[in-house]
Design a protein that fits this description.
Dehydroquinate synthase-like, alpha domain, binds nicotinamide-adenine-dinucleotide, 347 residues, Rossmann fold, 6-stranded parallel β-sheet, Alcohol_dehydrogenase_Fe, globular, 2 domains
C-alpha cells in the first residue's frame, strides 16, 4: 500500500447491551456450545458472580477469583491448571481490564471462547491486545484471536463503582478517543467513533459523578466507553498510551489513575500539532479541551500527580529518553527534552 492508504479492520464480535443483559450470559455460553464454564471474576463483581453461579448450576466448571492487574503469567498458569483440572470449555470474565486480561490470556493459550462482561470503562473487551508481565517485564501482543467473541455491557454492573474509579476509568476511555482523533491511521469510522465517545463521556461524566446510582447516565457512559474501546482497537495509540505503558511498567502504577492524570498534559503537548483533533475537541467541549479535561482530572480525590503516585522525580528523564528513542506514532515529535518537561509538569 502507498503512504496514504489506511486499512480499516473490524473484529467479529457479538455485543449485548442493556440493563440486565448479564442475565443472558448462560444462554450466550450455551450458544458457544459450552458445557463447562470457567468464571473469572474479581471481588468487586462478587454479586454478579454469585448470580451467574446460581444460573449456570452444573454447567459451572470452576471459578477463579483472583485476577491481578497487568496479567502476571504466574497467575495465568495457576488459572490454566484449573482449566485443565476441570475440563472447562469456555471462559466468562466479569470485572475490569484485569479480569478480562486473564480471560484473554487463558483463551490465547487454550483456544477457549470468551464472554467478557466489563465493569469499568477501560475497553479491553473491544481489543485484540493482551499485555502480560513476567519477572517485572511487560510484553504486549496483538492477534484477532485474543478479542472476546461475545461482550455483554450491563450498566447495572457499574452502579456501585466508587466515584474515584468512575472518574479515572472514564478519563482512561476518553484517552482512547483523544488518541484516535490524532492517530496517523485515523479513518472516517474512527473519527466518528472517537467524536461520539468524547462527546458522550464529557457530557455525561459530571452527571454520573453527581448521581452515581442513576441508571440512564451510567448506561450512556458505558456505551461511550464502548465506542472508545473500539477506537483503541482500530487506531494506533500515540504518546499518551506510550507514557502510560512506560510509567506504569517501570513504577507499577494504578492503570486508570495514571491515564487520568496524564491526559491533560498530553493534550496540551499534542493539540497545537493536531489541528483536526483540536477542532473536534473544541467543538465537543465547547471551549478549551485542556482546561475542561484538566478540571475533570484535578477533581479526583486520589492522586492527581505522578509525585503522589510515588514516582521518583529522578526517574522521569530516563522514561522520556526511552520514549523518545522509539516513539509511538504521534502528531508532535516527542524529543527527550520536551517529554521530560511534560513529565515534570505531570509530576
Ligand atoms: P482493574 O480491572 O484492575 O480494576 C481496578 C479495581 O477496581 C480492582 O480492584 C477491581 O476489582 C475494581 N473494580 C472493577 N470494576 C468495579 C466496579 N464496577 N465497582 C467497584 N470496583 C470495581 O482496572 P481497569 O482499569 O479496568 O483495567 C486495568 C487493566 O486492564 C490493566 O492491566 C491494563 O493494562 C488492562 N487493559 C488492557 C487493555 C487491552 O486492550 N489489552 C485495555 C485497557 C486496559
Amino acid at each position: 500500500a502507498g503512504g496514504h492508504v489506511t486499512v480499516h479492520e473490524t473484529l467479529p464480535s457479538r455485543v449485548l447491551v442493556g440493563a440486565g443483559a448479564r442475565r443472558a450470559v448462560p444462554e450466550e455460553t450455551a450458544r458457544l456450545g459450552s458445557r463447562r464454564v470457567l468464571l473469572v471474576a474479581t471481588g468487586s463483581a462478587r454479586a454478579a458472580a454469585e448470580e451467574l453461579v446460581r444460573a449456570l448450576g452444573p454447567r459451572l466448571a470452576a471459578r477463579f477469583d483472583r485476577p491481578v492487574v497487568h496479567t502476571p503469567v504466574a497467575v495465568t498458569e495457576e488459572a490454566l491448571e484449573l482449566v485443565r483440572a476441570t475440563d472447562a470449555d469456555s471462559v466468562v470474565a466479569i470485572g475490569g481490564g484485569s479480569a478480562i486480561g486473564l480471560a484473554k490470556a487463558l483463551s490465547v493459550r487454550t483456544g477457549l471462547p470468551q464472554v467478557a462482561v466489563p465493569t469499568t470503562y477501560a475497553g479491553s473487551e473491544a481489543t485484540p491486545v493482551l499485555g502480560e508481565t513476567k519477572d517485572g517485564v511487560k510484553t504486549t501482543r496483538r492477534d484477532p484471536a485474543i478479542a472476546p467473541g461475545t461482550v455483554v455491557h450491563d450498566p447495572e454492573l457499574t452502579l456501585a463503582m466508587p466515584p474515584g474509579l468512575t472518574l479515572t476509568s472514564a478519563l482512561n476511555a476518553l484517552a482512547h478517543a483523544v488518541e484516535a482523533l490524532w492517530a496517523a491511521n485515523a479513518t472516517a469510522v474512527s473519527d466518528a467513533l472517537a467524536t461520539e465517545a468524547a462527546d458522550g463521556i464529557l457530557t455525561v461524566l459530571p452527571e454520573v459523578l453527581a448521581d452515581p446510582g442513576g441508571l440512564p447516565g451510567r448506561a450512556r457512559l458505558q456505551q461511550s466507553a464502548w465506542l472508545a474501546g473500539l477506537c483503541l482497537a482500530q487506531t494506533r495509540m500515540g504518546l499518551h498510551h506510550q507514557l502510560a505503558h512506560a510509567l506504569g511498567g517501570t513504577f507499577d502504577l494504578p492503570h486508570a489513575e495514571l491515564h487520568a492524570l496524564l491526559l491533560p498534559h498530553v493534550l496540551a503537548f499534542n493539540l497545537p500539532a493536531a489541528p483536526r483533533a483540536a477542532a473536534r475537541l473544541e467543538r465537543v467541549t465547547g471551549g478549551d479541551p485542556v482546561a475542561v479535561v484538566g478540571a475533570l482530572a484535578r477533581g479526583h480525590t486520589g492522586a492527581t500527580a505522578l509525585r503522589a503516585l510515588g514516582v521518583p522525580r529522578e526517574g522521569l528523564r530516563a522514561v522520556a529518553e526511552r520514549v523518545a528513542a522509539q516513539p509511538y506514532p504521534n502528531p508532535r515529535v516527542p524529543d527527550a527534552e520536551a517529554v521530560t518537561r511534560l513529565l515534570e509538569e505531570a509530576w
